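re: ur question from earlier - yeah i can do the single chain one, its not a big deal. heres the input i used so u can compare w yours
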Amino acid sequence: MAKHGVIGSAFSDWWAYKYEVIDAIPWAGALMHDAGVVVSFNSDSSELARRMNLEAAKAVKYGGLPETEALKFVTLNPAIQLKVGKYVGSLEPGKHADFVVWSGHPLSSYTICEQTWIDGRRYFELTEDVRLRGEASRERQRLIQKVLASVKRKKKGADAADENGDESGAGGGR
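and the output i got, formated as tokens:
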């Protein structure tokens, strides 16, 4: 592959759950890398795509790759493969500055994304997200209480009308 300039993109270890990945093996990325192929890990799952750092860790686990090389499987190498490596994939002067700030080691399953930056602008910050979620929760509770109070008032009005002999609850008789 490397001799012919062919690139490789693989699932890290999610084999045997659907036909497209029936032949996948956990060592594929490391084997291609060791043969000189520009390798990336991929996913067609929007959920898994948010945790590609953990997929990169599997290249260390299964293939014994250095951590820096494994991280390239989900950063620089895909950018090179997509012919956008001059813009993204690594932090260098003149590039877009798309990056994540982790709470710990980026290959750890315990690490959490604290910040996400795109084009040098912060798009996500964990502390801000927690604050906004709190605001949304308080607003949701306020609206729920408002609806419940409204229902209670209507029920109270209907009960009063029933006491006056108005079965319709409209106060105007039958």
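The CA atoms of residues 30 and 64 lie 8 Å apart. not sure if urs matches, ping me
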